[in-house]
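haha ok so turns out i had the wrong file open the whole time. this is the CORRECT one, sorry everyone. sequence first:
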Amino acid sequence: MNNISWSNTLPMVIVVIVIMLIYNVLRRFIFDKLRVVKWSKWVVLAIAILLGLLNGYIGNKFNPTSLPYYVCLGVFIISIFTFFDLMGWGRKSYAPKANKKDDIVIRPKAKPNRVKNRNKDNNN
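then structure:
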């Protein structure tokens, strides 16, 4: 418990909040407008894996409290979140209904002439 301090925890919390804000802005204005093809999600995953390896390399080269470390960490997390969005894991899933026949409601056809004919029958 001696290693946990505000000087280590506070920058990480701030970085997480900033990464989430940046990702939400990117998703709303950029990622939703991109055309998705079948292979693009796997390209994003490959880029995320490469960025994760690069982040591990930079983590050894630089101090974990330095700016390049946090930038690579942010890009890695944003690419992972983008892959999850492309896979559809972040969306609500709706299970298909078991019986489609129960959803069909048969309604009688409206017959407007029936009212006209009833009035004629009552007058005669």
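Residues 6-29 form the longest helix (24 residues).
again sry for the mixup
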